Amino acid sequence: MSPLLTQLQRSSPTCLSSATCISVAIFSHHQMSTNARSVASRLSSSGFIRTQGFIGGKWVDAYDGKTIEVYNPATGEVITNVACMGGRETKDAITSAHNTFLSWSKLTAAERSRCLRKWFDLIMANKEELGQLMTLEQGKPLDEAMGEVTYGASYIEFYAEEAKRVYGDIIPAALPDRRLFVMKQPVGVVGAITPWNFPLAMITRKVAPALACGCTVVIKPSELTPLTALAAAELSIQAGIPPGAVNVVMGSASDIGEALLASPQVRKITFTGSTTVGKKLMAGAAETVKKVSLELGGNAPCIIFDDADLDVALKGTMATKFRNSGQTCVCANRILVQEGIYDKFSIAFSKAVESMKVGDGFVEGVAQGPIINDSALHKVESFVQDAISKGAKVLIGGKRHSLGMTFYEPTVIGDVKSEMLLAREEVFGPVAPLMKFKTEEEAIHIANDTNAGLAAYMFTTSIKRSWRVSEALEYGLVGINEGQISTEVAPFGGMKQSGLGREGSKYGMDEYLEIKYVCLGNMS
Ligand code: SIN
Fold first, then answer.
1. Degrees, nearest 5: CA angle 506-511-515
2. Angle at 211 between CA 208 and CA 212, to 5 degrees
3. Which residue, among 217, 274, 210, has the nearest Cα to 5 in the 3D structure?
4. Element (H, E) at 82
5. Residue 189: in which H helix or E strand, if any?
6. Backbone angle region of 86, left / alpha / beta, with phi > 0 → left and psi within -120 to 50 → alpha
7. Has 503 been annotated as catalytic?
8. pLDDT tens digits, residue range 128-167?
9. pLDDT tens-place string over residues 106-136
């Protein structure tokens, strides 16, 4: 494994090597649920499951014929095998992206906008199939997966509109015979490295603004969830986005990452994933001085003040903690509860958590699917054990689910302290640690006492406190009396070691643009 990039996934320490995959398969004695199996075979026979990489508008196998298995995490069964690509395929994808950049960037904004709008329409028209594919390979409940399709598509719709709003400036000149202009131009080829927790939305919120600006892209989706990415790429071609504008290579994370970093033609790296990998990518991008945007790990505090509306706080905390089985970078990671409301909140919260239905995402009423893989499950287990050994109390859950596989019981842990792993690091699983605090100052101190700075939440009925605490929190996103705040129209991104740059909103466009100053002289 390369010293530069050992993995490009959020939270799990290494990509699933084929050896790990085999151990997952052996571990499972479960049968794929009838529903999952029939969905897989229907999607496969309708051509919706693509297994090759996508380079220059063509579906291609890995040059050495290698493949990797894609698993259903709810059953451990293999859905299909996909091409396992590396440096050579990535170089070809970069060349094709570069060639297409020359023409795509010359189209009018309105022409690019129309292609994006068509892509949005096609994704929405295939919402059910894309949602099913996502549940199959990622495990999230079908309703949640369909919600992600709508969420992911919203970035394409938004940036189809923003494509037409890349304005420049005229600057009053310092000398009378000069005219000064600022124009914005696409950076060029973009390498987009995306995680498994949102197999579609993390792609569209990178690729849509890039294409809108006139850039072309090479996507490296997680090898755990490549099928949604490949289906989206197929729809991009059907939408009229030209061959070579969107390329997808998957396989060896280190080889693909290194090829993207080494190429002088790649002018921008955008990544969502772990902080460790983000730092390596940032260092690697320095060699050719590429632009980088990084959306890295969080350690979100969720502060429940004594004056909170209990029902609002319960609903919001459930939404932020248990979305995607706790596997999002904006999930509440530490739930700070003021002493006056602690008992009431912890009893009601535990009751709500206990009632969550766990299971295969295709089963009606399931609110929580499996954790993505074995190593992620072990991490969750070790964090819970660490907390218990240091005096925390399990209020609900706290162990593997009787369903087996990587299912874990939705868990609430009380009396968590700052020194425990659960409070220091991102658990990325369905575990809610409760921490008691006395004063607002103490809550702010605990909340900011971390290297992370992505999302923070608070529940209070005081408007003054809302402002005061929002200003004091060192976080890129703050939710007040709301647990799910991500939207295409607002900027998403972190402070401190949670990342660089913003995705979504008008600010998301700037990440793919160069600013050029033009001086027109001797005008008199
Ligand atoms: C993430 O977990 O990386 C993204 C979550 C979101 O878009 O809300």
1. 95
2. 80
3. 274
4. strand 78-83
5. strand 189-193
6. beta
7. no
8. 999 999 999 999 999 999 999 999 999 999 999 999 999 9
9. 999 999 999 999 999 999 999 999 999 999 9
Measured CA to CA, the distance from residue 486 to residue 26 in angstroms comes to 38
Verify whether residue 21 is a known catalytic residue.
no
Q: Please report, in angstroms and rounded to a whole number, the separation of the first and last CA atoms in the chain.
A: 63
Any idea what the Cα angle at residue 205 is, between residues 199 and 211, rounded to 5°? Answer: 115
Find out whether 297 and 452 touch, Cβ atoms under 8 Å: yes
Query: Which numbered atom of ligand 1 lies nearest the CA of 485?
Result: 8
Calpha distance 518→311 (Å, rounded): 57
Supply the residue whose CA is at minimum distance from atom 7 of ligand 1: 486
Model confidence over 263-308: pLDDT tens digits? 999 999 999 999 999 999 999 999 999 999 999 999 999 999 999 9
Return d(Cα 224, Cα 70) in angstroms, integer.
6
Give CA–CA dist 316/352, Å, rounded.
Answer: 12
- Residue 343 CA to ligand 1 center (angstroms) comes to 30
pTM for this one?
0.94
> Three-state SS for 471?
helix
Question: Which strands, in side-by-side order, build the sheet including 53-55?
Answer: 58-60, 53-55, 246-248, 216-220, 189-193, 266-272, 291-295, 499-500
Radius of gyration of the chain (CA): 23
331 ligand 1 Cβ < 6 A: no
Identify the residue whose C-alpha is closest to ligand 1 atom 3: 329
